[in-house]
Amino acid sequence: MQQSAAQDTTPGARIKVAILGGGPGGISAAFWLSATPALRARYEVTVHTLGWRLGGKCASGRNMAVGGRIEEHGLHVLMGCYQTAFQTIRACYAEWTPRASSPFKVWTDAMTPQWQAAVEEQAPGVTPPLWAPWTFTLPEFSGQPGDAVAATDTEALVGLMADAALAMLDANLDPALAAQLNYRPALALLRRLASSPTMQNGSTEGIDATRVELQGAAERIRSRVIPAGRPDKIDSATSASMGTGFPDTLNRLWILADLAFSVGLGWLCDLCARGPSAYDALNAQDFRNWLGGHGATQSTMDSAPIRALYDLTFAYRNGDASTLANGSMAAGVTFRFVMDMVFGYRHAPFWKMNAGTGDALFTPLYQVLEARGVKIDLFHRVTGIELSADKSQVGTIRIDQQAAFVNGRYQPFVVVKGLDCWPDQPLWEQLVDGEQLRADGVNFESSGDTTSAGQVDLTLGTDFDLVVLAVPPDVIEAVAPQLSAANARWQSMVAQSASVATEAFQLWLAPGLDKLGWTSDATIVSAYAERFDSWADMSQQLPLEDWPAANAPQAIEYFCGCLPADALPANPSQDAQAWLDASIAGLWPAVAVPGGPMKPGTELSRYCRANWEGFERYVQTPAGSVKYRLPPGPAQFGNLYLAGDWTLTRFSGGCFESAVESGSLAAAAIAARTI
């Protein structure tokens, strides 16, 4: 069956924009392209996305058969530095009219701020492995995430870093040792230079003198505490003066100081007063290698904070996280991201959602877009994108309509505790032949599923004028080979994009977090044992699940990590169990057999999944890859725009912020276009 929308031939007809993909990038593009009455009068926006829900990698679902539990693709925590993302969330909630029973009325109802995080440090040479949390408590900053700033200038953040390093050293060192190391003048110079108006105007005045001071202070510290030829050990006399053992507080202090001096030197040598192109040049290097090039010791480069950075961004070749040697992150965008993450946030550095990511973010976005008149076509799988006859623009979009609807329209939500939520599977009763589709095991989100209720061919000039492509390169490669064949720059973008499969599981536990034996207050943790190296307590979601009172869990815990390419096809349930048996005792000794599995009765429920499909894979930013990314604006073909965390953005990395920023940039580019 061929379907086609009727062409609007009336004078002043709106420009038709087809957005392909319902993840954060595509929905951000739709949101900002319909943000005002003037834009809605000019553009007719339609979102086409596969399956029964929005969200892409951020989609979540409610399992109505098991306590209305929240089932996520992985672990999603928003950073307080996600400026475009929070601007979008705040604007959406300000416009949203939720149902009267909804527990979410304003955006702060849907989010819990978090000021603490921890990385796990492993004692060297100890069998079985011995771990200890290294907890970081970050300060509360003024404002709210998403507040407008004059410009997130890295120079100001470097100044904050210098202040933090100075305070850290002053607070932890004996005054006599501090005087001997004489680091204060160097950090004070760095602070003044970072805030200097002349430097910000492109002057290099003072850079050389500051570099000399900083190098001297760094060398005094390193020579005082790190014996020659033994970069992995602290000088015994210094250690003895401050205390020893595992974890070694002094060793941690020196790692942080070494990081501060290495980052400061790197900024001075490679970035200061050199403009945006300097970051582009830096992206050819791996972040750890860049730190080492500016004096960071091997123990610093292998430390738990650096490991956590690579773990949280799944930054390992082929998903092999067994060694940091497999890690690769472009240094320029990583430096910018780390500075913003630690010093550039508003209010709190981390924000955890009080319901599923889909419930907290994509429910209000869907309902606001629907109220604006944006059409959202669920169950629309893009199967082909073809160019016009002259190869200058997209001419045809081929779509499988995956299902037909009993009442002609699909209503996507279930209600849990008064909140409109996305279910973990289609609402089969609304689909034609829904019970048979369910019995057949149809999975509308699987690339191997070809279920179709008909084909929809969208044609240029009739069904669309402009296209926003908001699916990742792994999907683009499959559905749009003609674009790569027609354009070398496009071909390079697709070929050089790197992605990795991930694996995750969630546990619902009988005891609360305080009964697990966890020794720190922090509940966002990374750099732990592979394969599930990152963990967060998400028990703040319990009030919005619907468990029977007699068997209600007291804690919800999320774990995730890379899924190595050589482990496919994955068995996520088996993988989770093997990891729990081997590693959970190091985190939760009170509910585990020493060195072994959890005790019976601890776990009430479990959800496991492997994310290896093209749209689910995490997009990486390895060294040397950023130069191949394309910006969201007109992308090599005249009517084609891009949205997603695989495009060129401020962070150019796999995160919610990059995807939302990309969508907003695509919308801005379209709005600025003259047709």
Counting DSSP E segments of at least 2 residues, the number of strands comes to: 25
Percent strand: 15-25%
Query: How do the strands of the widest beta sheet line up side by side?
Result: 9-8-20-21-22-19-23
CATH topology of the largest domain: FAD/NAD(P)-binding domain
Question: Which CATH architecture of the largest domain is right?
Answer: 3-Layer(bba) Sandwich
| Oligomeric category | single chain
Query: Largest sheet, if any?
Result: 7 strands, mixed
Number of self-contained structural domains: 2
- Coarse structural class: alpha/beta
Question: What is the helix tally?
Answer: 22
**What is the rounded Rg?**
26 Å
> What is the CATH homologous superfamily assignment of the largest domain?
FAD/NAD(P)-binding domain
Look at the structure and give the CATH class of the largest domain.
Answer: Alpha Beta
User: Can you give the mean pLDDT?
Assistant: 91
Low-confidence stretches: 1-9, 227-243
